[in-house]
User: Which sequence fits this backbone?
């Protein structure tokens, strides 16, 4: 049985269930208690699980991420929130140099089973420092498992797996999807990390997209005169290139859409991985679409200009025929 | 916890009138902002300054035009106004229009006006203090006696970047005044759960001058910041001032404030409104009459209406503007 | 006339000349005074230009980068050193969110003519947190001009331009090249930012490489049975794709070698940019080579294993024929 | 500036002997490390602890095996030894070999041994303190009374991350002991140019217990850290201790130390060598004889030689090992 819930409710359910399931799970971050998180994602958890398990922290991302690292090494399973994904940089040393590298540097003797989650993406007029998509930064640092959520179903199932995984996982919901609704099973479930999924079958062209861009790609697919297969990578590191490659072997065409900045973003790498290994499957050049090389502007028309639209995706698809 | 406000007026009448007028300007501008935001005219986040007006105005009045202000915390608009940015430019920026201070690229969290020496605000709370140290360094290198004032909230003091800025400012005795606006809350996290008695104590290990003042009293803030600026100008190095204020508004528009105790909140609104208190003080001390204040309010309301008109009439940026101002081009030596 | 000097001497000369030329230039960082920098790059400068112009800072990259930003906005021209490029993350908010975005966010009203420089790259057994190549991180953040140095000639000419440029520039020498020697003009000169250069002409295959990888690519070129054209991008952001594309239009084959981590590194983006726009020029799939998706290990054999070798580059070139 | 060292021995004889032995172990191990590095057998950087042995041993002795140590500053090896990591595993790690504590992946800057509750070292100075807070939190959540001790250099205290760690530790009164090894230098930058009188003053605004001790006196450090650990174990929260030591060695091997005043350096070597001073103290107080110390040294030399043999004989990792330990695989739910 399933029911319709919102994306934010799905996130809150994942947290609630994992807090209930495993005493070692604790949740902390700024304003996760009474306030319930910026998008309502921690609402009710503090009341239910108590102040030892759900903790407001002082305002410091270095403190949050650093404490999460130590707590994980110390044998518990911290889930830490940053209020915006951009703040991954605010805890830069922890996020780039410490957390993902400590297991490797210790030769595997040290484990860091922590999860950091933070809403990413543009579209709400939050400006250049509260709107970025940072999975290109994180995925470029070996050691992080980088996971995004596209639907309430994904959000819940992937977040639960993220919490249970023994690697450091960075989980990235998208703020524009907070209030979107979708079917979620009544029963408990998890979804595999590290596996892409073909969300829509098609014969003519493969579109890789996640988060908000997935939904725009779906709109675009409805607009164009081609049978579009949509692959949702879900996990950006490690990346399941095989599922994408398999699709391209069938369709012969590839469009990679993502909200990271195009220059050294996710798109070029993903496209090139497939081109490099499946060159002779291609019937047309690959096409990449992302945020052009600019920060996210405040002005709504400017913000929409830089954020790939369904039209831009549709034009990208059509350019390959 | 709050000391009783003195009922004397300790500045000359003109200054006192300007203080009240400027606080009213912030208040009326922000009330209008709230309406416009509520009507969906203003995009993004809006954080208002209710309760901080005395702190903003006292600080602004203590500064020379040539002194830098690097804004911190989340009470922003009052500070932009106190630094002298024209209301129409601020309002147009809130609207994201081409005639905004930042041509619509920045919005409420980023109003910057280098000509008026407003560095602006780092929307990552607590990232403005080290730039403030750099601004002070630049002034010192250029041989001026200008200073840099930088604000931060109680919440922001938990970020290490703030403490590093203290280290750097102290290291070269730079002319920086750190103002901590302790409004008791970092969104929903109470400052009283932090361990220091006063947040200005953070300056003590550095052997800096520190002071904690009632920030809802515009004159107190004016005095304390003036003293600190004077020390900085005279080469006596940085200071840390805690300005104890109250946040009489939600963290941002939309915040339901479920975390606040209602009775206490009502009491604070009653007792600690910097504008109401100062208004009464000026009336009691015959600095102004009710009628004069009404005129003042009416004038400001006109100014604010004009600012809204200006913003509304300013065009949305053209799409191509999104690609401007990323780089100054050509790059050095390029295309030669 | 030219003379042979080392790469580090070239860097020190650039600093010396710019400090002499422009009173607004000031240099600061950890241990830039008597100590002279970790590789000798600031030796003698403090003695010559004095303590007001050349300043040791307390140990904080946030302090250094944040102060540089303010000083630049305040009207001087700071040149700030971080002791290792990895420490870009240690000043994460300044490097990712503040410095590159402030000019844009202010609608162009605020200028930040600063230069940060930091030695990057692996090879000296410095371990996972002192060996990274970070131009993929930086280049993914619009607003930074990201410049690398491959030879003493490049190091001097590009660094001088970096200091003079009105944008925030991140300049990245490579620590393994510190003691390499090369010809440098006696006269003052600068080199253009934002322009790639064809260093070696060839007909059969284009290899894009910089820093240490450039030198290894040259070795590889000598090993293989093909006429290799080597393009040195010099500036990674903005990237001069046109020079690379022109070369590929001629050769029909492309190998991109760089020391950034492959996943969401520079290689895939660069290769895909060319593939996407010059698809029908390609006679073989593109080939990308970088640090595999691991942190840099301490053990020298492991470090050499993950760092692309001349042999691996040669094999990459040969795989295209 | 340095107080005269007391000549009494204030611990029992066994403890005193262990103190000297452990300091000698560090010294002899490091002398050998220096030689092996000089001969090119050890890759990467080597930072030695000369002058810090008393601080390391006093701190190590104050801890229980179950207490965590998160190492900071750049004086590392002495701390690894003081936490009980076997010499062969340390030496093999310095060599980058498979039998090293970290299988050769980490090296001198990253020796970690979670089984012995050595968190290891963040090679970015000052990034170990917040993890230490997290380690303390984990112990608290698990209901133990174990504490986390974390060290940092004088230089490292300028990083904000250190101050944030103080905020977080104080916020929940976590059992963390912050030890600042103030050896007067951050590479070439003198601590005396920092503004605090004592670096432990950084704990004052947080209302933490603070103390500044002569860190070259092993007994002083032992006492001060024991007291702080006891407080932490009893739920009395975090402490900050400044351990004033001298760096009697270059920053790292290869540092020419052009920035040091030679006469002063010689004086310090003469007066502040923790091992030499303690040796004399134990002799004067008849705790040990010259002959016993010679035996001690000879035994340690054997241990150290064995460690070197162990390291030399340990194989280099196979190339494929470079790709191990990046992820624990399969990822959750993968391949099911
Ligand atoms: C580095 C960073 N972390 C978190 C936030 C989200 N945030 C915005 S305002 C705020 C609270 C700030 O509290 P305080 O510093 O006391 O300022 P106030 O809002 O009270 O003016 C938070 C957590 C942010 N903008 N930047
Ligand atoms: C974040 C960071 N910045 C700079 C360095 C380079 N570095 C290594 S040790 C050191 C000085 C450390 O001084 P201190 O903290 O006093 O420790 P000590 O070396 O005296 O033990 C510096 C600057 C580093 N490793 N990490
Ligand atoms: Mg506050
Ligand atoms: Mg030191």
Assistant:
């Amino acid at each position: 049985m399933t029911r319709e819930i919102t994306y934010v409710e799905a996130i809150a359910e994942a947290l609630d269930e994992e807090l209930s399931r495993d005493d070692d799970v604790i949740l902390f971050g700024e304003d996760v208690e009474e306030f319930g998180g910026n998008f309502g994602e921690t609402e009710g958890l503090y009341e239910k699980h108590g102040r030892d398990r759900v903790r407001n922290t002082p305002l410091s991302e270095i403190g949050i991420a650093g404490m999460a690292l130590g707590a994980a090494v110390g044998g518990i399973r911290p889930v830490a929130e940053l209020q915006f994904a951009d703040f991954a940089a605010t805890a830069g040393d922890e996020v780039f140099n410490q957390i993902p590298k400590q297991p490797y540097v210790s030769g595997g003797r040290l484990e860091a089973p922590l999860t950091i989650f933070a809403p990413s993406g543009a579209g709400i007029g939050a400006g250049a420092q509260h709107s970025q998509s940072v999975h290109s930064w994180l995925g470029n640092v070996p050691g992080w498992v980088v996971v995004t959520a596209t639907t309430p179903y994904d959000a819940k199932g992937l977040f639960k797996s993220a919490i249970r995984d023994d690697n450091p996982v960075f989980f990235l919901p998208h703020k524009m999807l907070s209030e979107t609704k979708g079917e979620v099973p009544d029963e408990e479930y998890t979804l595999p990390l590290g596996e892409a999924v073909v969300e829509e079958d098609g014969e003519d062209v493969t579109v890789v997209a996640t988060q908000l861009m997935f939904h725009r790609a779906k709109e675009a697919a409805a607009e164009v005169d081609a049978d579009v297969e949509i692959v949702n990578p879900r996990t950006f590191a490690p990346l399941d290139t095989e599922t994408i490659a398999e699709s391209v072997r069938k369709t012969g065409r590839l469009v990679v859409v993502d909200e990271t900045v195009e220059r050294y973003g996710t798109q070029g790498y993903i496209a090139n991985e497939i081109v490099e290994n499946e060159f002779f499957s291609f019937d047309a050049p690959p096409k990449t679409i992302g945020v052009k090389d600019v920060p996210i502007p405040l002005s709504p028309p400017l913000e929409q200009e830089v954020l790939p639209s369904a039209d831009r995706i549709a034009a990208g698809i059509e350019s390959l025929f | 916890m709050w000391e009783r406000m003195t009922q004397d007026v300790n500045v000359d009448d003109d200054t006192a009138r300007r203080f009240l007028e400027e606080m009213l300007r912030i208040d009326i501008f922000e009330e209008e902002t709230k309406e416009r935001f509520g009507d969906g005219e203003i995009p993004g986040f809006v954080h208002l300054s209710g309760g901080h007006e005395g702190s903003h105005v006292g600080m602004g009045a203590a500064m020379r035009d040539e002194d830098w202000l690097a804004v911190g915390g989340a009470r922003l608009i009052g500070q932009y106004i106190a630094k002298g940015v024209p209301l129409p430019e601020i309002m147009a920026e809130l609207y994201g229009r081409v005639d905004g201070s930042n041509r619509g690229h920045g919005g409420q969290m980023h109003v910057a006006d280098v000509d008026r020496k407003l560095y602006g605000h780092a929307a990552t709370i607590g990232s403005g203090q080290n730039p403030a140290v750099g601004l002070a360094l630049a002034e010192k290198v250029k041989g001026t006696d200008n200073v840099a004032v930088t604000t931060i909230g109680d919440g922001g003091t938990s970020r290490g970047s703030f403490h590093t800025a203290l280290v750097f400012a102290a290291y070269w005795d730079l002319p920086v005044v750190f103002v901590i606006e302790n409004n008791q809350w970092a969104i929903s996290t109470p400052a009283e759960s932090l361990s220091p008695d006063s947040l200005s104590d953070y300056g003590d290990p550095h052997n800096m001058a520190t002071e904690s003042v009632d920030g809802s009293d515009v004159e107190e803030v004016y005095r304390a910041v003036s003293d600190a600026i004077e020390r900085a100008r005279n080469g006596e190095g940085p200071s840390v001032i805690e300005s104890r204020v109250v946040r009489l508004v939600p963290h941002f528009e939309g915040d339901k404030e479920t975390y606040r105790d209602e009775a206490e909140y009502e009491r604070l609104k009653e007792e600690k409104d910097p504008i109401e208190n100062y208004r009464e003080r000026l009336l009691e001390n015959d600095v102004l009459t009710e009628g004069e204040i009404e005129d003042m309010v009416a004038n400001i309301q006109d100014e604010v209406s004009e600012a809204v008109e200006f913003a509304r009439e300013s065009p949305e940026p053209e799409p191509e503007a999104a690609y401007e101002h990323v780089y100054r081009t050509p790059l050095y030596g390029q295309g030669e």
Summary: Residues 2-185 of chain A form a domain with the Rossmann fold fold (CATH 3.40.50.970). Residues D 153-155, 183, 185-186 surround magnesium ion (ligand 4) (CB under 6 Å). Chain A has a mean pLDDT of 98. The interface with chain B takes residues 30-31, 33-36, 56-63, 86-87, 90, 124-130, 292-295, 297-302, 305-306 of chain A (CB under 8 Å).
